[in-house]
Fold this sequence. Notes:
Layout: H1 12-28, H2 32-71, H3 75-93, H4 99-150, E1 161-163, E2 166-169, E3 176-179, E4 182-185, E5 191-193, E6 198-204, E7 213-222, E8 225-237, E9 244-245, E10 250-254, E11 264-271, E12 274-276, H5 279-282
Antiparallel strand pairs: 1-4, 2-3, 4-11, 5-10, 6-7, 6-9, 7-8, 8-10, 8-11, 11-12
Amino acid sequence: MKIRETHADKPRRALAEDASSVGEIADSRPGTRGRLGRRGLALAAVSGIGILGLSLVGASVATSSGLAFADQPPISAVTTFEARQDSTSRTAERPELTVAELAQVRAQVVATTSEQVVASQEKAALEARQSELNDAAESVTAEADRLRNLSKFLWPTAGSVSSVYGLRLHPILHYYRMHDGDDIGGTCGQPIRAAQSGKVVKAEMGYNGGSGNNVRIDHGDINGVNVETGYLHMLNFSVKAGDKVSKGDIIGHVGSTGLSTACHLHFSAYKNGSGTDPMQYIGWNSEAKGAASHN
């Protein structure tokens, strides 16, 4: 008995060969070759498309990866971007001020500035006022010193009084006439000093009605009275009208010019233009103790 082999008993390789032969047989059959041929082409086309698709997908992935890498910014740019993002987030956290709030802030700034300007102006005005007060205080002090010193006249030249102020018998004219000063004896040529500070209002050379070379000094207001002093019979003088002199300045030298019998200084004083006894101004000097009590 002959056992018949089946397809199941064939090895797989034989099945593949059988399938190949079946294809050949089918192709040899009329009308089947075209269908099988087209089917084979279709399978081949599908396989080709699949392979092509895989290739394209691979290329696309590679290209996108390359582009993605190329599009990445440098590290510094990334850092700057992150810093901006961080700054933006911090700015976003701060609340926005309204127009009214901004106006209030502006008003506060203006008010503060105005206060500072006013304070600066007040300080400057205070300093200026303080300076004026200081100057005024110095002027008051100087005037007080002047008035105090004006009450103390300097003895104008060395020597004592030989003939006092008042009515006397003139030694040359031999009749009584008013002697409007004090004669202070001295040596010819000895210095004559300004009895008090003031302004020279007259400086004349010559006989001058018997006064000889003479100088007059205006000492200004002393206790409500304008006081002047005169220096007569001078040998010479070293000042001129308009000069300002200080107490003790040498203004000339003792002489015997004009109507005079010997070298001496005729010292006179005037209150508001009228002659007065000069001893009331120079009498405080210790040398006045030796002054003559009468002519």
